[in-house]
Amino acid sequence: MDVDREDVSRRLHVKFVTKLDSPFKVPANSVAIPSNVTRLGLSSIVNSIIESDNPEWKTEPFDFLIDGELIRMSLEEFLLAKGISAERTLEIEYIRAVTPRKEEEPSLHDDWVSAVNGSSPRFILTGCYDGLGRVWSSAGSCSHILEGHSGAISSVALVNSNDAETVTVATSSKDRTLRLFKFDPTESVDSTTKVRAYKILRGHKASVQSVSAQKSGNMVCSSSWDCTINLWNTNESTSEGESVSVKKRKGNNQGEESQSEGEAVTSLVGHTQCVSSVVWPEYDVIYSSSWDHSVRRWDVETGKDSLNLFCGKALNTVDVGGEGSALIAAGGSDPILRVWDPRKPGTSAPVFQFSSHSSWISACKWHKSSWFHLLSASYDGKIMLWDLRTAWPLSVIDTHNDKVLSADWWKGESVISGGADSKLRISSGIAIS
Amino acid sequence: MTKKKKGANEDKIIETKSKTVSGKSQKQKKPVEIEESLKEEDLLQESGTDSDYDGDSLPESLDSDDFDSDFFDSEYDGTQEGTEDGDVEFSEDDVLGNLLEHEGSIDNVDDEESEQVESDNGEEDGSDEGSERDEAVEESDSSEDEVPSRNTVGDVPLEWYKDEKHIGYDITGKKITKKEKQDKLDSFLATMDDSKNWRKIYDEYNDEEVELTKEECNLMRRILKGEAPHADFDPYAPYVDWFKWDDSIHPLSSAPEPKRRFIPSKWEAKKVLKLVRAIRKGLIKFDKPEEEPNVYLLWGDDSTSDQKSKHLTYIPPPKLKLPGHDESYNPSLEYIPTEEEKASYELMYEEDRPKFIPKRFTSLRSIPAYENALKESFERCLDLYLCPRVRKKRINIDPESLKPKLPSRKDLRPYPNSCYLEYKGHTGAVTTISTDSSGEWIASGSTDGSVRMWEVETGRCLKVWQFDEAIMCVAWNPLSRLPVLAVAMGRDLFFLNTELGTDEEQEITKERLHSGNIPEPEASVAAIVTWLPDELYGGIKIRHFKSISSIDWHRKGDYLSTVMASGETRGVVLHQLSKQKTQRLPFKIRGLPVCTLFHPSLSYFFVATRKDVRVYNLLKPGEATKKLETGLREISSMAIHPGGDNLIVGSKEGKMCWFDMDLSSKPYKTLKNHPKDITNVAVHRSYPLFASCSEDSTAYVFHGMVYNDLNQNPLIVPLEILRGHSSKGGVLDCKFHPRQPWLFTAGADSIIKLYCH
């Protein structure tokens, strides 16, 4: 322990507490530590304390919280900046550092990976610029290929994540269509199965940018360059007459398995430019971001927008989550990830701004279970993990060689990402309590 | 006796002056005055009776210590014996008797005081007294106040008794005999001896001398000081308003207003008439201008005279310095420089060297002629003659204040300022870019012969068309439903189907680009262009007779103009895609065309030649054309504001002109910003932005606000210099994103950059 040999002028009495389980616990004694110690020093102190009890302990990085704020400078500076007295015994909470501990082998694609989705813990969905969607049961093993699109896939979404035999997946593409696929993820992974869409959703007049599925229901919404958000039914056939007429035309073109076409149930009009991203977090609420510099919240029942946040920059991505699933995070044509709290009255200014990226932000996702954690992917090739309790990124995943086009959480402890280097990257072992 | 010489005339004047003062004194009922009043009566005879005073309340009397007794001496000389200096007869007894009465009080009076006043105020005081007394005679009705005078002759001139031995009659009718006249010398001596003489007044009416009391002297002193005569009088007593200000119920008089109140006064009218006549005749003159004395300081130093220099712009020349000790023919030794000093002078610069080196001469005779005399006087004359000693009118203005007040760049956001995205893939210099009307894609052409279509959002290259020649121009069709790309290279113009858009749109597009039924060309254009099917990509190509330098789509997406720089009069043709035919311009073009533009909303057509821009009306070919004189050496590019009234022209000398076509045919602003050729200029479709790019590998972004109000000129503010392209070859093209405030720049370094806000 290098603390002992340091020439220490000031010492602080601290007590380490944690909510972690037994192997991570330290005795609740207060210890005297030098005041100029940083996070690394604190981490090594805690590690050595645990190691003294448990000889098989492997060193584990920790993050430290004082009064709900992460320490990102030396302890002395932190106390000065926050105006916390150093006289009394300081209570420092430690959590396992949010950083990937393992990097899986990249899963190679034929073209840029434009979309990833990790909603299901059983598999990963990816969309690619070659027009194929892929299902990966684990790193490097592609179980299904979703084919049919003539243009690049821009977004993929898992429609119903219930544990039924088959799962339904929606893909959106630059060929102005959405396709719905059904497959059985429990099939053997020895050979890659090709899956054709059971339903094609036509109606957008321009490239479809994003697709999102209703949490519990059979609807998907999609956003497009034609400035609209369309809502679709995912049923095999919504109404008899429609599906008949469609089948007739389809029969002429392809003449094989029953591929139905669907039309938009309704269209949410309001954005004046390309709607770049949609999310459907609740039953009747849709959030959308657009290149017209706004984030809107739509009421599905009425088809009106109930919230309109103006940002000033063209936005590429939006996600809703955090505390009470109410915070809106959005990123776009500048390196700043903004987080709004629409519950805060009287202001449309972002409550958090994270600006460590150096290029456009292409994706941002909230962690499904944590209120504080979110990730952002940027064209600078980096994925950053953020905690609302500090303005510095928790960790930077810099595994891509080119632009990162999409990223998502998977299984709560992994980050999956796809980029212009045609690889799906999985960084796992992220400890988020 | 000098005192006697004072003339009687003088006395009279003084008397009249002091009437008021003397009159006022009468109200003061003082026993002391009794004797005085007697004397006054005598004086009155001389000065004539002024009976029109009322005694005023001001208790002023003449009894003052500064009373000049000498004066009275002279006075009675004058009255009794005329102006002659004859001996004065005194009735000594009377005077003495009077004196006795007052003796006790007089003792206290200071001699010094009296003498001091004597010289100053003697005359006036004397006269005061004189006039005062006659009032006393008339006025006083109380027995206390008035002691009946001894003499009863009344108000008769005393001259009548001049030759008599008596001066009048007393109350019993007995003659009052004149006192025996003293010898002048004796009387003078007596006056000299008597210390109280200054206080004595001769009363010639009663022929006696009166001596003033101390109180009287004090009174006079106070009057002289300008104070109230009595010490117990309070001039600043609180004002008691006796008048009842409340409105009385009844008027003072119930008499009706007399008629005269309402008619103009006849007499006043007469008086006015008289004055008017006098003025007309010129008897009365008004406002006679006062003549100012025209004098000035003749020998004054004119260089310092402010008065003159204030008005004149001429500055008088400075006077020559007067010779000092140095110039003396025999100065003191300390003025003579030593040999070392003289040697050091030689080492100095000519300007620093002293002009005159003092020398010593034993006598004036040995002084030689001054060697510089002619030179110096010549120089002085030159100075006087040639130096323009004129005050220059220079306006003192802070140069900062002359700068136009430009709004802050922060207020003009958004504008492109930082590059986040690059579009890489070309292997040669990117010469041209074009944005799709929706802003989703851009197309670019390069010297490597490839045309690429990019996705703006991700920087993904979606399509590549490879050709053999370097691409000169690419242009998206402005219609979103007709996704056709016009590509010019060499002599060929290709229409490429980008295969974007919905199926129906694709059908229309394919129909348009169907090369099966190309009509026979008209004879007039057959020599210029040929429509051919494009075997390579299945579209149409148009072969021109000269190489194409610039193309521009009409806003409706059907017509396309191509410019052949070396085509001279046939250098500009219009292609119609829907009919697949070509036509020449319905008018003749003067000069070599450089580029052309369609007006964004009207049927005007802009043709830029090397030096100027001409505006033609396509629908009315006969209409007079408008010529915009740029004043530039060689135009390279132009762009039009979406409003259609403002045109931006870039030139190969790095200058940019902003034309406000409503304002004038001369440039509204000429901006010299680039050190090298401007390759292209661009105007944003919706944001008030315009940009220029240049071979110096920078792009400039400007704020160019055009107001609807015709009175307000466009506002042009330079915003940002966009750098980033490598220095070789520079930036060859720039285009704005149609919907975002973003700028695409195409560099000779084969990279396209997107600058975002």
Automatic annotation (TrEMBL), chain A:
<comment type="function">
    <text>Required for maturation of ribosomal RNAs and formation of the large ribosomal subunit.</text>
</comment>
<dbReference type="Pfam" id="PF08154">
    <property type="entry name" value="NLE"/>
</dbReference>
<dbReference type="GO" id="GO:0030687">
    <property type="term" value="C:preribosome, large subunit precursor"/>
</dbReference>
<dbReference type="InterPro" id="IPR015943">
    <property type="entry name" value="WD40/YVTN_repeat-like_dom_sf"/>
</dbReference>
<protein>
    <recommendedName>
        <fullName>Ribosome biogenesis protein WDR12 homolog</fullName>
    </recommendedName>
</protein>
<feature type="region of interest" description="Disordered">
    <location>
        <begin position="238"/>
        <end position="265"/>
    </location>
</feature>
<keyword id="KW-0853">WD repeat</keyword>
<keyword id="KW-0539">Nucleus</keyword>
<dbReference type="InterPro" id="IPR020472">
    <property type="entry name" value="WD40_PAC1"/>
</dbReference>
<dbReference type="GO" id="GO:0005730">
    <property type="term" value="C:nucleolus"/>
</dbReference>
<feature type="repeat" description="WD">
    <location>
        <begin position="268"/>
        <end position="308"/>
    </location>
</feature>
<dbReference type="InterPro" id="IPR001680">
    <property type="entry name" value="WD40_rpt"/>
</dbReference>
<comment type="similarity">
    <text>Belongs to the WD repeat WDR12/YTM1 family.</text>
</comment>
<dbReference type="InterPro" id="IPR036322">
    <property type="entry name" value="WD40_repeat_dom_sf"/>
</dbReference>
<dbReference type="InterPro" id="IPR019775">
    <property type="entry name" value="WD40_repeat_CS"/>
</dbReference>
<dbReference type="InterPro" id="IPR028599">
    <property type="entry name" value="WDR12/Ytm1"/>
</dbReference>
<keyword id="KW-0698">rRNA processing</keyword>
<dbReference type="GO" id="GO:0005654">
    <property type="term" value="C:nucleoplasm"/>
</dbReference>
<dbReference type="GO" id="GO:0000463">
    <property type="term" value="P:maturation of LSU-rRNA from tricistronic rRNA transcript (SSU-rRNA, 5.8S rRNA, LSU-rRNA)"/>
</dbReference>
<feature type="repeat" description="WD">
    <location>
        <begin position="354"/>
        <end position="396"/>
    </location>
</feature>
<keyword id="KW-0690">Ribosome biogenesis</keyword>
<feature type="repeat" description="WD">
    <location>
        <begin position="201"/>
        <end position="242"/>
    </location>
</feature>
UniProtKB/TrEMBL annotation, chain B:
<dbReference type="GO" id="GO:0000466">
    <property type="term" value="P:maturation of 5.8S rRNA from tricistronic rRNA transcript (SSU-rRNA, 5.8S rRNA, LSU-rRNA)"/>
</dbReference>
<keyword id="KW-0698">rRNA processing</keyword>
<feature type="repeat" description="WD">
    <location>
        <begin position="423"/>
        <end position="464"/>
    </location>
</feature>
<feature type="domain" description="BOP1 N-terminal">
    <location>
        <begin position="161"/>
        <end position="416"/>
    </location>
</feature>
<feature type="compositionally biased region" description="Acidic residues">
    <location>
        <begin position="108"/>
        <end position="146"/>
    </location>
</feature>
<dbReference type="InterPro" id="IPR001680">
    <property type="entry name" value="WD40_rpt"/>
</dbReference>
<comment type="similarity">
    <text>Belongs to the WD repeat BOP1/ERB1 family.</text>
</comment>
<dbReference type="Pfam" id="PF00400">
    <property type="entry name" value="WD40"/>
</dbReference>
<dbReference type="InterPro" id="IPR036322">
    <property type="entry name" value="WD40_repeat_dom_sf"/>
</dbReference>
<dbReference type="GO" id="GO:0051302">
    <property type="term" value="P:regulation of cell division"/>
</dbReference>
<dbReference type="GO" id="GO:0043021">
    <property type="term" value="F:ribonucleoprotein complex binding"/>
</dbReference>
<keyword id="KW-0539">Nucleus</keyword>
<keyword id="KW-0677">Repeat</keyword>
<protein>
    <recommendedName>
        <fullName>Ribosome biogenesis protein BOP1 homolog</fullName>
    </recommendedName>
</protein>
<dbReference type="InterPro" id="IPR028598">
    <property type="entry name" value="BOP1/Erb1"/>
</dbReference>
<feature type="compositionally biased region" description="Acidic residues">
    <location>
        <begin position="49"/>
        <end position="95"/>
    </location>
</feature>
<dbReference type="Pfam" id="PF08145">
    <property type="entry name" value="BOP1NT"/>
</dbReference>
<feature type="region of interest" description="Disordered">
    <location>
        <begin position="1"/>
        <end position="158"/>
    </location>
</feature>
<feature type="compositionally biased region" description="Basic and acidic residues">
    <location>
        <begin position="30"/>
        <end position="42"/>
    </location>
</feature>
<dbReference type="InterPro" id="IPR012953">
    <property type="entry name" value="BOP1_N_dom"/>
</dbReference>
<dbReference type="InterPro" id="IPR015943">
    <property type="entry name" value="WD40/YVTN_repeat-like_dom_sf"/>
</dbReference>
<comment type="function">
    <text>Required for maturation of ribosomal RNAs and formation of the large ribosomal subunit.</text>
</comment>
